[in-house]
Every structure is written in C-alpha cells, then in structure tokens.
Write a structure and sequence with these properties.
Blueprint: H1 14-23, H2 29-43, E1 51-54, E2 69-73, H3 76-85, E3 91-95, E4 108-114, H4 123-133, E5 134-145, E6 155-160, E7 163-168, E8 175-180, E9 191-196, H5 199-208, E10 211-219, H6 230-239, E11 243-250
Parallel strand pairs: 1-2, 1-4, 2-3, 4-5
Antiparallel strand pairs: 5-11, 6-7, 8-9, 10-11
Helix pairs in contact: 1-3, 4-5
Bound molecules: S-adenosylmethionine (SAM).
The site of S-adenosylmethionine has 21 residues, from helix 1 and strand 2.
C-alpha cells in the first residue's frame, strides 16, 4: 500500500536529471526499437487529430509527430529539456501533476501514456483526467512494462531442465516498489517509485473511467544473446514479453 512520505515526488527533483541522461535525446534502445514505433502505429494519428500525453518526460514521443500535441510531466527538468529539443509551434509542454485534477483549454482526439502509468502514484486519477480531456470515441494508448512478467524486484530468471523459466514472487497484490538508479553508488543514487498493478486492476481503472479496451498487444525484446546460454535465453525472450500495449476507446 502507499506509504506516507513527501519525498516520493522524486520525479520533480533529482530523478528527472538522472532520467534525462539515461534516456538521452533519441530515447533508450527499447524506445527506438519497440516502444515509439509501436506507439505511433497504434496511435495511427490522422492529420487533424490532436494528441495529449501524460508523463511525457523529455518529449521523446512528441518529437516524432507533426500533429498538435500537449505533453504534461511532473519533472520541470524534463519539461525544460523537451522544450529545448522540440521547436514545433503546435507542440506544448507543461509541468503538471496528472494525479491531481488537470485543467486544460481543449479536448483531444488521442491520448498516450508511454512507460509512465507505472510511475504514477495514483494511476486511477491519471486515467480519470485523461478521460475528462479526451473527446467521446477518443482513444488512449497505454504502454507499460509488462505487468505480469516484469515486476521490479519481484521477477527473476532461473535455469532448470535446460530451460530458462520466469519466476515471480507477487502478481495480484498492488505494490509500491523503490527503484534505485545506482544501488552501488550511494552518493549519486536516485530513488524513484514504480507502482505494480495486475492487468485486471488496470482494466478496471479504464472501465470505471469510461474506457473500453479494444486491443492488447504484448511486445518481445529484439535482443539476441551470445555465448553458451544463447539458445535458451533467446527462446525465453520469445516467450515472455517486455511490454504491454493497451488501446482503450472512450465510450459516449
Ligand atoms: C519512465 S518515465 C517515462 C517518460 C516518457 N514517457 C518516456 O517514455 O521517456 C515516467 C515519467 O512519468 C513522470 N511522472 C511521474 N509521476 C507523475 C505525475 N504524478 N504527473 C505527471 N508526470 C509524472 C515522470 O516525471 C517521468 O517523466
């Protein structure tokens, strides 16, 4: 359950600086190879459609589109970076907490939360806000670290009978999980939090806020191993997806 601790708005402080360096201007390997191409395909933006993104970070998605776009993020550091990188006059970036009531000036045809729902302390409120600022029949694209197979500190690999198995210590329970940027470097270590929810909990948050799930995709890693474990590692990579993408439509 949530613990009361005011320092848990870490994204508005030093964690933003760490993430900015980690991900860089072009995005991580997975952003480039899977997440952004997949998000653009599912968004399928028509010329006149406007996009609203919650937890936009340094604007990695925003910079890939030409449509009118609004990105909100808790981190002033990341929003400054997004504004520096993105000179499109139809793109707006604002510092804002999407887990509090959000006030905008217009409604949008499409919405996105890219690897951010898992970092929102109150994802229910974020989805409610998104529902409020999407037009009827508008679509929300959610991309998250796969909630069944990638639970920080609770998912691991074991090798048994010549196979690589995925093992988990939790799934159904909701957990707030502390993430350390540099666990072995106390001085520079930055803490942030990841919030685990089961797939049924996420589906309920969507349904309660007026969304119907129209599609779920599960995306695999394109990496290949080398060395004597390569065969079983590559096989396991083809079995256990890294990301889950959800397309949800706001019903009238
Ligand atoms: C893992 S990053 C993903 C950023 C970006 N979508 C990307 O793919 O690079 C999670 C983002 O969620 C933002 N975030 C966390 N809590 C937030 C909140 N309550 N309101 C708005 N943004 C928040 C963080 O500042 C961070 O930029």
């Amino acid at each position: 359950m949530y613990k009361k601790d005011s320092k848990k708005t870490a994204w508005s402080g030093e964690v933003g600086k760490w993430y900015k360096t980690l991900v860089g201007k072009e995005g991580s390997f997975y952003h480039q190879k899977i997440v952004i191409p997949g998000a653009l395909r599912l968004l399928n933006l028509k010329k006149e459609e406007k996009l609203l993104e919650f937890g936009c970070g340094q604007g990695i998605l925003g910079r890939q589109i030409v449509n009118e776009y609004m990105g909100l993020d808790l981190s002033p550091e990341l929003i400054t970076e997004a504004k520096n990188f993105d000179k499109n006059e139809k793109h707006y970036y604002w510092v804002g907490d999407v887990c509090q009531p959000v006030k905008l000036h217009k409604t949008y045809e499409k919405g996105a939360m890219i690897l951010s729902l898992q970092n929102f302390k109150k994802p229910y409120i974020a989805i409610k806000n998104m529902s409020m600022w999407l037009k009827d029949k508008g679509e929300l694209i959610l991309i998250i670290n796969h909630p069944a197979f990638r639970i920080p500190q609770h998912s691991d690999w074991i090798v048994k009978d010549g196979k690589q198995w995925r093992v988990e210590s939790i799934y159904m329970s909701h957990e707030e999980i502390e993430i350390k940027s540099s666990p072995f470097d106390r001085k520079n270590n930055q803490k942030s939090f990841s919030y685990h929810w089961s797939i049924s909990a996420i589906s309920e948050m969507l349904l309660d806020n007026g969304f119907i799930i129209s599609k779920i995709e599960e995306w695999l890693s394109p990496k290949k191993s080398e060395g004597k474990m390569a065969r079983i590692e590559d096989k396991a990579r083809q079995e256990f997806p890294l990301f889950m993408a959800v397309v949800a439509k706001k019903y009238e």
